[in-house]
Write a structure and sequence with these properties.
Arc Repressor Mutant, subunit A; 30% helix; HTH_AraC; seven-stranded antiparallel sheet; four-stranded antiparallel sheet; alpha+beta; 10 helices
Length: 296
Amino acid sequence: METRSLHSTDLSKTEEIKPPASPDLLKKPKKPWRYQLFHFHRSAESRLISSVLDRSPHPRKQPQQCHDGAMYAEVQLGMGQTLWRSRQVAPSTIPADGCVDLIVSGDRVLLCGPQTRWIAAGASDSTGLLGIRLAPGTASALVPMDLPAVRDQIIDAQDVLSRSAIPLCEALLRARDSSDPAAGLSPLASSDAPEPWVPQIRQYAVAGTSARKAATAMSWSERTLRRHMLASFGYGYTTLRRIVRARRARRLIAGGTPPTQAATIAGYSDQAHLTRELTTLIGMTPGELIHDPRNG
């Protein structure tokens, strides 16, 4: 979830569009997790969670064989819904993208809640991973759930999804071994466009509009904006802005723009501010991005 292909949901284009954490309201798995484990960075502490998502800030042709033998391919299913398959042969850093993913792992489907922090992922097995990525603000239409409760968590999908999502999960499991997984999943993908305010608020985030001005433009109070954001995105507007800005800065630096200039273009107060945000959201410093071989 460019080497982490920022999927078709590129946060820095106009279509771009990867707050305090809410209490953990979810049940803990009763059995030890048996899927690929990786560390989820949270300030000074880390939690063990699972999955390998391969996304990057640069659009890529499908499928693409990466420099280290990794593979990533994706296809659009519906509005804001992307089917992806990846194979990761070495540990990688997965930037925050604000998306929700449903991921096949063994004989179960995992739900990766809205991702607002970077993830350090291990290698996948030889079969790789298959999943559906739901763009920021679009998940609730296909799989209604309490998004803030699953933010930055990966759990068994059956623990949080309603019965209406069972056909999609079953189709995703069947698609794992299919040569054309999209064929069985496309009919289940929602063709409904997101609520009109969703793409509009994403455009405000891309433009760097403040929460106050964005709320005013929507004829809402800031409290109303936050309520809508939590229900449809799983996090607040300020978090969306931070994710968009960090991914833009990442693209700039990966493309050869000096960090100081990238900080100015992306809207950071200075390079120190840029470094702090990239470390939190991207999992790499500007210097590490410059020397990342995946940018070649």
